[in-house]
Design brief:
2 domains, mainly alpha, single chain
Length: 212
């Protein structure tokens, strides 16, 4: 079967019975019966093929190859065209519906967030002071507090898919630098970066919103 498509049950039974009758007459050497049943089988096969059905699917209920059914249709089809046969649903609409059913849903790109004016101001001011923070700076020092505020603002913005590029342009930090800062405060570490200050880096699939 292609995409799980098979002949309707009634058509399957029709093909199966028609081929069984033809095979039985052929095995018995009864020429008139063989010709009559051959015409009938050829008629329903030609009808199915004209409706777009592949020979392989038409041949499956008969238990023969697509080439064998095509040969029978060619051998007996000249007179079979005059025979009235049941209609068969067209194949292409069924194929299109089956393809649509199994097609993966398009991946929805995460909508990018934007910084508020307050966040932009906080990033610029915090980044300016945070650059002077070292390990010897007291916990209540304005530079230390600015560094912590910078990290919080970055993490909050990333929850809304604000891009690293936008924040990097405002702060003067590199995108990797911002991501490492976020990682040290609970964010996701950037891929393919060596461990830094105890942060274990694991390769991961890139977030679509990180592309810019």
């Amino acid at each position: 079967m292609v995409y799980g498509i098979a002949l309707p049950k009634g058509q399957e039974a029709l093909f199966r019975a028609a081929y069984r009758a033809y095979a039985r007459a052929n095995a018995a050497g009864k020429r008139e019966a063989r010709v009559a049943t051959g015409h009938h089988l050829a008629a329903i096969a030609a009808n199915g093929h004209s409706a777009g059905w592949p020979w392989r699917l038409l041949a499956e209920p008969c238990g023969i190859s697509a080439e064998r059914l095509r040969q029978i249709t060619n051998d007996y089809g000249a007179d079979a065209a005059m025979e009235s046969v049941p209609s068969i649903p067209p194949y292409q609409p069924m194929l299109a519906a089956a393809r649509e059913a199994v097609a993966p849903s398009p991946r929805r790109r995460q909508q990018r967030g934007t910084l508020t004016e307050q966040e932009r101001t906080d990033l610029v001011e915090s980044a300016r002071l945070a650059r002077f923070t070292t390990g010897s700076v007291a916990l209540d020092d304005p530079r230390r507090l600015a560094s912590e505020k910078l990290s919080r603002t970055i993490l909050d913005a990333r929850k809304r898919a604000v891009t690293w590029r936008e924040m990097a342009e405002l702060t003067g930090y590199t995108q990797v630098g911002l991501r490492m800062r976020a990682a040290r405060h609970g964010g996701t570490p950037p891929p393919s970066v060596a461990p830094y200050r105890g942060v274990t880096i694991h390769p991961r699939t890139q977030d679509p919103s990180d592309a810019s």
